[in-house]
Design the sequence.
């Protein structure tokens, strides 16, 4: 049975390399995992006053339904100021509320990200991992992927390098095993 993955891309930019990276992972996972992209760009900034009798604004309710329906969560995010993007933190806040109804608790989760910089998203992923653990997700710790976007590796939305394709395919396989283990 194919696992359904709630995919959160931590960049809103139309030509986001993290969106392209997530889509490349989806193509590599074809037939193995079903990706369901969770829109987070329309979430209002977290404000506890926006809850009405335990119901949030419609974009929040839609996001929570997608996460609740998923078997696991994959966060693909850039690194902003050596940490996570604010839009990802906002999604985490909305998804963890109202008290006792967190959409994150117990979900198998994996994280990765891409940047044109030499260190990939290593520092940001440390913060992201801690956030996911604090939310109650069961986070896959290995393998870690801190990917640097280069034209030798990626182009036209495809993985061009066989070495990179192998690394990413192994990552997908490890995530599949992780999901089964956590279930």
Sequence:
């Amino acid at each position: 049975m194919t696992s359904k993955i709630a995919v959160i891309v931590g960049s809103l930019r139309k030509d986001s390399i993290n969106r392209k990276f997530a889509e490349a992972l989806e193509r590599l996972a074809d037939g193995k995992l079903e990706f369901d992209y969770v829109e987070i760009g329309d979430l209002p900034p977290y404000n506890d006053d926006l809850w009405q009798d335990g119901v949030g604004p419609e974009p929040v309710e839609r996001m929570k339904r997608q996460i609740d329906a998923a078997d696991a969560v994959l966060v693909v995010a850039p690194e902003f100021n050596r940490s996570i993007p604010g839009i990802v933190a906002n999604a985490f806040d909305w998804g963890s509320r109202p008290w006792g109804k967190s959409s994150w608790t117990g979900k198998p989760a994996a994280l990765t990200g891409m940047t044109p910089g030499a260190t990939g998203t290593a520092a940001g992923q440390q913060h992201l991992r801690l956030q996911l653990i604090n939310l109650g997700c069961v986070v896959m710790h290995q393998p870690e992927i801190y990917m640097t976007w280069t034209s030798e590796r990626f182009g036209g939305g495809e993985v061009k390098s066989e070495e990179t394709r192998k690394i990413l395919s192994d990552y997908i396989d490890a995530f599949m095993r992780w999901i089964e283990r956590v279930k």
